[in-house]
Amino acid sequence: MSITVASVSANFTRDLEQNYALIAQLLEQARAEGARLVAFPEAALGGYLPALGNHGDSVRTTRRSLPPALRLDGPEIARVQELAGDTVLTIGFCELAEDGETRYNAAVCLDDSQIYSSYRKVHQPLGENMSYAAGDGYQAFDTPVGRLGMQICYDKAFPEAARMLALDGAEIVISMSAWPAARTATAENLQDDRWTYRFNQFDIARALDNQVFWIASNQSGTFGSLRYVGNAKVVDPGGNVLATTLLGDGLAIAEVDVEGKFREMRGGMFHLRDRRPDVYAPVVESGTSRADGWREVAHA
Fold first, then answer.
1. 10, 74, 147, 263: most buried, per Cβ within 10 A?
2. What does pTM read for this prediction?
């Protein structure tokens, strides 16, 4: 059985009312196309950080201008549930932990009937740890539209993260981002930027690595010092991009047949089945790896 899915490229700010209005507008457009699953970007409720980095103004700005911290059981998430109706959606936000102090870069999957799962971002780039604590795990979960997994932004650079979700039975992995263009030597056309290239290549690789459907949402436009690259997309288990927004705002919409495509892709070479865990021990060993020595070599 096929379902229609949609991935969002849009600009979300600190203004929650603006966010709600944009969510409602995009949901209306997605439903008009028959979408039953809609993926909103990282930090779609309250916006992302205004800067990234470990130096000077980036540090001061990051600490000074944080997004609103929201509780998973708070009125803001409940309002998104009301907007969702019977559409399953994923959306990113800044989660306030039970202790009332710790913040997480988080995401939630929900509709108006229930919260299916939430996720706290594990991998933190470029000083993000100054603003958020890190999550500690990946878990797939069942919904009316299939078994899903969630990731946030930099997570997609780590094959192990997507593999854990695939091994837990995720059929569709949703990767929500606030992925910017390169901070130096930025391409005049952001579609040609090296960070845009990496964003797109990671999406294709992770779908193909694990033979899963991959839905990548992303912020667009600008916020603080960041210029987002959009390129929301739907990728099939063969690494084929079924729909993309490129740099623009809007929706990447595609019809997917999970069972049929899995039968086609996994009937021969099935990557999850053909793994050799007995030779992968160094991948999961903690501590320093030989790759860490590149800094000493580079500066010798």
1. 10
2. 0.93
